[in-house]
Amino acid sequence: MAELPSEDGASRGPLPTIGQIGRYALKYRIGDGGLGTVYAADDPLLSRRVAIKTLNLMPAGARTPLETDAREPFNAIFLHEARAAAHLSHPHIVTVFDAGLSPQGAYIAMELLKGKDLRALLSDGWRPTVGQAVLIIRRVADALAYAHSKGIVHRDIKPANIFMVGRTQPKVLDFGIASVAHARDSGGAVGGSPHYMAPEQVRNEPTDRRTDVFSLGVVLYELLTGHRAFEGDSLAAITGAVCSFTPPMADEVSTAVPPALASIAARAMAKRPEDRPRSARALSRDLHEWLQAHPEALQSGEDDAPTAERRWPQWAFGSLALVGAGLIGFGIWHGLASAPAGQSLAEPTPAASPVRVAMAPAEPTAQVTSPTASPAATADPPATTIAPPAAAGSGVLQLAISPWAEVEVDGKVQGLTPPLNQLNLPVGRHTVTLRNSGYAAHAIAVDIEANESVLVKHRFGP
User: Fold this and answer.
1) What EC identifiers does the entry list (predicted)?
2) Does residue 324 or residue 42 have the better pLDDT?
3) Residue 408 has pLDDT above 70, yes or no
C-alpha cells in the first residue's frame, strides 16, 4: 500500500485513494499541463507506483470541453501515438507501459520519475555548466535518434518535455503528444510550443527528424546562454522570430560559451532543414567530438559514455526499482472497458468477478532468444479490439507480467504485456506462453471457467 512520505523521507502512513482511472488507484495530483492532469497512482496488478496522464479535451480558448461524439477522433489520435511510443525502449525516454479509455476519457500510465523538468529547473534559477549542457543535449539527441530510427518524430522538444532525474540524466517525455494538441486546438493551427518550433512547423509544412534537431538546438542555446533564442510578446511575434530572426551567436551572449560550441548550436537552428545536421545522431556526434576535444568541461562524476539503445530487460528492472513504472502500447485496446460507464473519479471500481491466481506452470519450453533482441518485432503485432464483457461460455485471463512479455495463447500471438492486461478466452484449458528476449519462454496451463477471472503473474529475471 502506498505511504505518505514526510519531509525527511520517513513514511507517515498509507496514502488515501482519491479516484480511479481504469485499474489504477489515484493517490495524488502531480500537476497540470496543457493536455491534461498528471496523477501518481498505484497499479494493483503489478504492485507499483506509476504516473497517470489524462487527456484534456478542452480546446485552446474554449470554455467547455468537446462533446462526447467529438472526442472520438482525438482519443484515437492519443491512443495511436501512445501505441507508437510503447515501441520505444531507451534509457533517456520515459517508459510507457499502458494507455486506454476510461469513463473519464483517455489516459496514459507511465514511469513515475523523481526530479524536475528542465523548464522548472531553469525557472528556479539553475544554470548548467557548459559541460553539463552538452551532456544533457547529447543524451536527448541519442534518445531522439533512437526514436527516429523507429519512424517516430517528437515535434515538441522543449525544456518542459525534458525531465531531469540527475544533473546530466535526462528523460524525454510526451512523444507524439503534439499531434493530439494540434488536432484538438484547430485544423489549421500549428502543433508544438512556439518558442521551440521549427520554421517548417510554423508554416505548416512537412516535418521530419530535422524538425526535432532544430528544437533541440534552441534548447541547447538556452542552456548555454540563459536566454531563449526567440522571444515576442504575442504568438505572432514569436513565430515570426522563429521564421525570420537570427539570434546572436551563443558566445556573443555569454563569453563562457566556446565559439565552436556556439557554431554547433547555430547550425542546429538553421532556418532551412537542409542546412542543419542531417539527423539527431549527427548532432550527438558533433557534441561528442566537442567533449572529446574539451575534457576539462566535464566535472568529477560526469562522463560522456555512449548511450545504450536497447537495454530493455536490465533497464526495465532498474526503472521499476526506483519509484514507479509506466505505460502504454499496442495492446491498449484490450480490456479497457471493464470500468462501469458511470464511474466517477471519486469512486473506485469494485472487482467485477472472482479472481483465481494461476500458479502451476506447464512444462516450460527451452527456447531462448538473443539477449539483444528487441521486445517489439519490426512489424506491428496483430490488431486488437476492446474486450467485450465475458460471454456465458468465456472467462477473463488477467496478466501481471514484469518487465514485459510477448503473450501467446494456444500458439497464437496476442500482443505485448504491458500494456495488454486481459483477454477474454473460451471456457476450457489453454496454454499461455510468455516470451521475453534473453530468457527461457515461460508456459503455463490455465483453466478458464465461465464468468470468472484467472490472474497469471510472472517476473522474468531475478
Assistant:
1) 2.7.11.1
2) 42
3) yes
